[in-house]
Amino acid sequence: MVVVGGWGVDAAMLLPLFDRWPGEIHLISLNDALMSRCDSITGVADYLLERYPCPSVWAGWSQGAQVVMAAASRSCPQVRKAITLAGFPRFVAGEQWSTGMEVDTFETFREQVSQNAGLAWRRFQRLLIHGSHDESQARQELRPWLARGPSVSDVNLVRGLDWLGSEDQRSLWGALPVPTLHLQASNDVVVECWEHSFHPSPAAKVVRVTGMTHWPRGQALSRCHDEILQFVFGKEVEWTL
């Protein structure tokens, strides 16, 4: 499995979701090493397709979902199935896309990152767990990731936001023939659920996970785990080592 993280986050934050995956897992963070050699979401997808040529399941979290969907559109044989976690075809609101972040809000955040990336990054990290029913436990789980700091430089944090502001994959998501599972988060304050306003391709299944915040954790892990299990293997297969 190839797992791609999102903006300013470590893909290893998803390990609890895949810790019993019956196979090899490649965790990909959008870090300096990757972003410095690629100039777009599509560029990242192409690079990862070259690096991981074996047919497998690809999963993307947040901005990583756009990478995975771009990869699936460019090489269906390699991306056998795609999974998005709190993903989106377009991040910023626009014409016929009211579920995105308002442009003014996005530009304000981009300016904050440009002026003080560390502070803005920490604020964003806290949004990952905003809306958690177990707020105290969520803060405790987030603490070590906050202590590590961002795994990407200030300049590439801004660059990643530029990609978020310009990428529009609605046509791609609406026509992709690759079997896809979109896991939406009911309590997400970063990405609004789009299940009722956008219809992906017939090959896709959209599931709204109750209680899930932008970071898939806590009780939402069990629901995500079950949905992924059924989507990838079928009900009759147990996900155990």
Question: How would you summarize this macromolecular structure in one to three sentences?
Answer:
The chain has 241 residues and is an alpha/beta fold. The chain has 10 helices and 6 strands.
Summary tags:
single chain; 241 residues; Rossmann fold; 6-stranded parallel β-sheet; 10 helices; 42% helix; AB_hydrolase_fold; Biofilm PGA synthesis protein PgaA
Q: How would you describe this structure to a colleague?
A:
This protein is an alpha/beta fold and 241 residues long. The model has no long low-confidence stretch (mean pLDDT 95). The protein is globular and about 45 Å long. The protein has helices spanning 15-18, 32-35, 41-51, 63-74, 103-115, 117-127, 135-148, 154-166, 170-175, 220-233, and strands at residues 2-4, 26-28, 56-61, 79-85, 180-185, 204-209. It has a six-stranded parallel beta sheet with strand order 2-1-3-4-5-6, with helices on both faces. It has one domain: Alpha/Beta hydrolase fold, catalytic domain (Rossmann fold), CATH 3.40.50.1820. Strand 1, helix 1 and strand 2 (26-28) form a beta-alpha-beta unit. The longest helix has 14 residues, at 135-148. InterPro entries: AB_hydrolase_fold. It comes from Marinobacter salarius. This is Biofilm PGA synthesis protein PgaA.
